[in-house]
């Protein structure tokens, strides 16, 4: 159940960060309010997930997949194609999330 709540947090986090750009510096009312509501849902979901999933696992998964999701959004919406170094960085982030979740051990 914790991973389902975390998935909600990741999804709303991607949407909130994407709306931050669309709001044009919080000058457009509807995207601004949507962004703030989604960010609240994101933080609530992340906090709930952390009550079940270890903090390091939950936060690394949230941050890594949110960054990757926002990059994909930027590629689709704004045609912002990352260069080779950014692409390698994103791959390393995803690999890092996988390593933390599947190979990481808690003491």
Explain what this protein looks like in three dimensions:
This protein has 107 residues and is mostly helical. It has helices at 2-22, 29-50, 55-78, 84-102. The protein is built from 4 helices and no strands. It has one domain.
For the biggest sheet, the summary is: none
- Separation of the first and last Cα atoms: 23 Å
Return the structural class: mainly alpha
What is the gyration radius calculated from CA atoms? Answer: 15 Å
Share of helix among residues? over 70%
Low-confidence stretches: none
Number of domains: 1
- Fraction in beta strands: under 5%
Write the H/E string, N to C.
HHHH
Summarize the model shown:
The chain is mainly α and 107 residues long. It contains four helices and no strands.
Descriptive labels:
about 110 residues; mainly alpha
List the helices and strands and how they pair.
Layout: H1 2-22, H2 29-50, H3 55-78, H4 84-102
């Amino acid at each position: 159940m914790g991973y389902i709540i975390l998935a909600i947090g990741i999804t709303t986090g991607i949407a909130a960060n994407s709306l931050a750009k669309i709001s044009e510096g919080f000058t457009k009312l509807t995207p601004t309010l949507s962004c703030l509501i989604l960010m609240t849902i994101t933080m609530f979901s992340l906090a709930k997930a952390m009550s079940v999933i270890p903090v390091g696992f939950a936060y690394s998964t949230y941050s890594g997949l949110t960054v990757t999701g926002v990059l994909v959004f930027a590629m689709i919406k704004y045609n912002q194609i990352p260069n080779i170094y950014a692409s390698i960085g994103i791959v390393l982030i995803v690999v890092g999330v996988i390593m933390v979740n599947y190979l990481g051990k808690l003491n």
